[in-house]
């Protein structure tokens, strides 16, 4: 395919996001439609523990459920030390009904202990250290690096994976493979923004089935790979 116009694409996506905010909130810049982890990061001023907890809870869970559950658990356990004082059943009750809440409660308990034992109660800020924590994969680690530490990390979730393949930027089998290709393909200055924008775009327009191609602001840049039916 031709050289990718990342600058032009991101300008259009940013403008679309501004219009979305204005339409949904009446005032530009008020972002009630933000992904759940971004919302929690802003509420807790990017506290690494809050971001890590909400990111883990967000896996296979709707944003609105993640936000409510994150607030509940962080109100009672705003630090690894406080979470360790709780029984696993108490954690489960607070984070229910997030997906796999029992597994996530167990992971949070283990993570809190590791943070106290190995990191003085602090969330680590390197990919290697984050990946060593139970229940933390590349998506989670990258999102924590972006939202909690403002690092140039490249978070690829299912929306980013699907849309970048649909656009024709790459051909990959899973989000981890997509991330590795994007790291070589995309200028670093766009890394932190891509997940934020494409998650919203995937939820609102570029749906998995029957996307709203008629409303797409980057249609001229898209190969529509895998699109059999659109609106």
Report what the structure shows.
Helix 2 (36-43) packs parallel to helix 4 (63-76) and helix 10 (158-167) crosses helix 12 (191-204). This protein has 231 residues and is mainly alpha-helical. It has two domains: 6-32 and 154-221, Helix-hairpin-Helix base-excision DNA repair enzymes (C-terminal) (Endonuclease Iii, domain 2, Orthogonal Bundle); 36-149, Endonuclease III, domain 1. Mean pLDDT is 93; it is low at 26-30. It starts with 5 loop residues before the first helix and ends in a 27-residue tail after the last helix. The longest helix is centred in the N-terminal third of the chain and has 20 residues, at 6-25. The protein has helices at 6-25, 36-43, 48-58, 63-76, 80-84, 88-95, 101-118, 127-131, 138-149, 158-167, 175-185, 191-204.
- What name goes with the CATH superfamily of the largest domain? Hypothetical protein, domain 2
Structural class: mainly alpha
How much of the sequence lies in strands comes to under 5%
Helix content: 55-70%
Question: How many β-strand stretches?
Answer: 0
Describe the secondary structure blueprint for this structure:
Elements: H1 6-25, H2 36-43, H3 48-58, H4 63-76, H5 80-84, H6 88-95, H7 101-118, H8 127-131, H9 138-149, H10 158-167, H11 175-185, H12 191-204
Helix pairs in contact: 1-12, 2-3, 2-4, 3-4, 3-9, 6-7, 10-12
């Amino acid at each position: 395919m031709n050289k990718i116009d990342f600058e032009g694409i991101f300008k259009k996506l940013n403008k679309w996001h501004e219009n979305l905010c204005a339409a949904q909130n009446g005032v530009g810049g008020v972002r009630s439609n933000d992904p759940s982890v971004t919302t929690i990061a802003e509420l807790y001023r990017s506290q690494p523990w809050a971001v890590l907890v909400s990111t883990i809870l967000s896996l296979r869970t709707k944003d609105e459920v993640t936000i409510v559950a994150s607030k509940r658990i962080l109100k009672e356990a705003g630090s690894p030390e406080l979470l360790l004082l709780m029984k696993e059943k108490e954690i489960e009750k607070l984070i229910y009904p997030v997906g796999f809440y029992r597994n996530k409660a167990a992971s949070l308990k283990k993570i809190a202990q590791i943070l106290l034992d190995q990191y003085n109660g602090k969330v680590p800020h390197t990919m290697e250290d984050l990946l060593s924590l139970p229940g933390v994969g590349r998506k989670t680690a990258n999102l924590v690096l972006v939202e909690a530490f403002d690092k140039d990390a490249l978070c690829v979730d299912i929306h980013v994976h699907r849309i970048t393949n649909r656009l024709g930027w790459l051909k990959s089998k899973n989000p981890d493979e997509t991330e590795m290709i994007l790291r070589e393909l995309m200028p670093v200055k766009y890394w932190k923004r891509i997940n934020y924008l494409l998650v919203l775009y995937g939820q609102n327009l570029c749906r998995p089935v029957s996307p709203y191609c008629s409303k797409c602001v980057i249609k001229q840049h898209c190969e529509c790979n895998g699109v059999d039916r659109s609106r």
